[in-house]
Design goal:
Length: 334
């Protein structure tokens, strides 16, 4: 996701690093003190360690090891993010489900490569381990318990959004007025730029990722997150492509008819959860959910190159019709 900075913004402080398995950056506009970025990056590193599903001894690993055995005491951040995930599981009727950990591990979709899909029997076996209603939270002692052995939690569809919100809140507490947090495409902005103009965030062309932007969303405050079938995938020997957005009900990559969803919301955790949720729900159910959710808008792109923009983005999203008008058909949902 491209951020268009525009003309000279005067004093700026920026820092970037490779964290959360991606490139992250924070830019402060109207500031010159680089030490203001130390606490936010320390927080990212701290949460990167505690919220990963892959590090031995992490809280998620301990929850997995104790599934069906006993509750595990966790940090306030881990408790809150799991609590938030259950909310979206309920809203989506289970399409968003962080207990897809065993399924994600089975498919192991990362960098593009050639390999075969898991056997059907294996998919059916791990699918039985997916059920968010079997997460037991106890707020009195901040414990998390998975009731069945073999269950596990993966926060990949929510963690970056949660972390972005935590980082932005820490910047507010420091008195920062204008900031941009970009966690590998999870973008959260505050206060517009120093010249009072909005940030411009490019919406990627899902069929030529990294090689063009379908248009630009203008935003002063809020978050923009995109989920697409091109971000992580593999191809089998016969040439069939399998993307990383897995349907918990089928056990296979989603075939919802969508190839990309971009969500604009006030908080990044909401935008993060919803980008995956809407992709899995498909166009009709996705539009219905956006309509019912205050402060949320979205851009849906279908497999037949239809681009549907919800009405709240009608004035803030500028489509590059000159370059993409013959490829994509733009419609504003009413």
């Amino acid at each position: 996701m491209m951020i268009f900075a525009g003309c000279d913004q005067g004093k700026t402080v920026t820092e970037s690093d490779f964290l959360l398995d991606t490139f992250v950056s924070i830019t402060l506009y109207g500031e010159s003190d680089s030490t203001l970025l130390e606490k936010p990056f320390d927080k990212i590193r701290e949460l990167n360690s505690s919220l990963t599903a892959f590090a031995s001894g992490s809280e998620l690993d301990l929850i997995k090891q104790n599934a069906g055995v006993q509750p595990v005491a966790v940090s306030e951040d881990t408790f809150q993010i799991i609590e938030k995930s259950i909310k979206y599981s309920k809203i989506s009727s289970g399409y968003f489900d962080v207990t897809t950990g065993p399924l994600i591990d089975l498919w192991s979709i990362n960098a593009p490569e050639v390999k075969e899909a898991p056997p059907l029997e294996s998919i059916l076996n791990v699918r039985e381990k997916i059920d968010y209603t079997k997460i037991v939270l106890n707020s009195s002692d901040n414990t998390v318990y998975l009731t069945d052995p073999g269950m596990s939690i993966n926060l990949g569809a929510i963690a970056k959004g949660y972390i972005a919100d935590v980082v932005m809140e820490s910047l507010r507490e420091e008195g920062i007025k204008h900031a941009l947090v970009n966690l590998g495409g999870n973008v959260l902005v505050m206060g517009g730029k120093a010249d009072s103009s909005a940030y411009g965030v490019g919406v990627e062309d899902p069929r030529n990722p990294g090689d063009g932007y379908l248009g630009v969303i203008s935003l002063e405050d809020g978050s923009i997150v995109t989920s697409g079938d091109y971000q992580r995938y593999f191809t089998d020997a016969a040439g069939r492509r399998y993307h990383h957005i897995l349907d918990p009900f089928t056990g296979y990559p989603s075939e919802s008819g969508l190839i990309q969803v971009t969500v604009v919301a006030e908080s990044s955790v909401d935008a993060d959860c919803l980008s995956t949720t809407l992709f899995l729900l498909g166009l009709d159910k996705g539009l219905d959910l956006v309509e019912k959710t205050p402060g949320v808008d979205a851009i849906f792109i279908t497999s037949d190159n239809q681009m549907i923009v919800t009405k709240g983005l009608k004035d803030s999203f500028v489509f590059d019709k000159a370059n993409y008008g013959t490829t994509y058909t733009l419609t504003v949902a009413e």
